[in-house]
Amino acid sequence: MLNWDDPLTAPVPRLRATPPDQGPAMPPPAPQADDTPVAEAPVSLAPVNPEDKRVVNGQADINQLAPFKYPWAWDFFLNANKNHWTPLDINMAQDVHDYHHRLTLEERHVYENVLSYLTTSDILAMRNIGLAVMEKMSAPELQIYQARQVYEESLHTWTYQHCIETLGLDQGEIYNRYRVVPEIHRKIQISNRRLDSILRPDIDLRDPDELHNFVMSYLFFAAIFEGCWFYNGFSPIFSLQRRGLMKGTAEQFQYIMRDEVLHCTFGIRVVRQILQEEGVVPDPKTVREMWDETEAAEAGYARYILRDPILGYTAEDHIEQFRFVANRRARQAGLDEPFPGARNALPWLDEQANLRKEKNFFETRVTEYQTGGALSWD
Length: 378
Ligand SMILES: [Fe+2]
Ligand SMILES: [Fe+2]
What we know:
mainly alpha; Ribonucleotide Reductase, subunit A; globular; binds fe (ii) ion
């Protein structure tokens, strides 16, 4: 066993000891076939070589942070910690007035359904990263950022709940809407299917098919679920904000969007690292099906939430923007663009994500919130 006075001495085999409270009155147990001296597993004293680290299936000591193999992951963690806020920091008083007195019925329909989708989505995102992804990482610098991500997803859920409570919406109705509206349910169903496929105790990432499925699931959550559906999903609310409506909600969503851009970029980076380390080649047919399925789901969702047009925002804009952003995520992942020629239908959306003080025409405080140095959010 380890010598605590001199931890670097070589371990010595230890005989199984008789418990000290077993007095001499007790006869010694009869020898058993397996009653042989038991040696503890030898303690490896070799220092961790960062080159031994792997994203998955690694054997290096998971409890030792440095030396880093993935210093960029640590940078993500440091950057994420520059975007601190809680929903209580943001004044929602004007939103209460806007919702009850200024929004049209069509705009309320958009607002409520966007919230309804997001409430369920962020819980899914939290469960995915915290329960299914993080445990499969074999380098601590990756897990540490993901632990922060788990917290951020729960913070996002708190944000939606805060909006629902502040506006006095019917919680039961909002939270259950994804279960009864097929167009919202479809997106959740696709995500649940991906999550369920990797949230199994018997999964073995040394199996090439399992590893490919895990990569596809992580790619889906990072590039599409967070990188497209979230990124694009806030835009109907930002369109209200651009008209001076629901500015408190929109400001909250801007904070969330900053987190999500980091989640997306980090996840895609991890996926690329796995592809490189493990020699995985994404199956083109599986990738194509992923884009087509998620585009169809997004189109159905957009046409439902915008079944009646609102000023300055249409379902077709939303769908085209999905395609445009999907192309960007594919390029980030080193894949072919799935929707060549898609146009930037909402050019102001990137400004929302990359908002800087000089672009802050709403004069909200989100741009001044960053606590660290200059960041690139995309
Ligand atoms: Fe989130
Ligand atoms: Fe996220």
